[in-house]
Amino acid sequence: MIWTIIVNDAPYGIEKPWNALRLCSTATSEEIEVRLFLMGDSVVSAKKGQSTPDGYYNMEKMLGVLLKRGVQVKVCGSCINARGLTIPELVDGVELGSMKILVDWIIESDRVINF
Question: Does the reported pTM lie above 0.85?
């Protein structure tokens, strides 16, 4: 089974991105292949060097764990450009995505979940 999870919201100040990554983590433990596509303000979730208060979730660390579990993580190219980000500034393993890649993922997926 393949799931594509799409995240749109900024990583902090709202819990949708955090919940999306929690869902990714749980799905991988159930042997579901997960593909995570970050677009809009959620691309900032993949920025290296995040500093969060103790006890507060850290999206960078969560993405690192997901990548180690084999989750494919892509960011919208137009979205990172609009926010002045480049691929080298992102968590190692996060790749450049596109609308074409997202369409292909959606076609290949058994489930598509949007946060």
Answer: yes
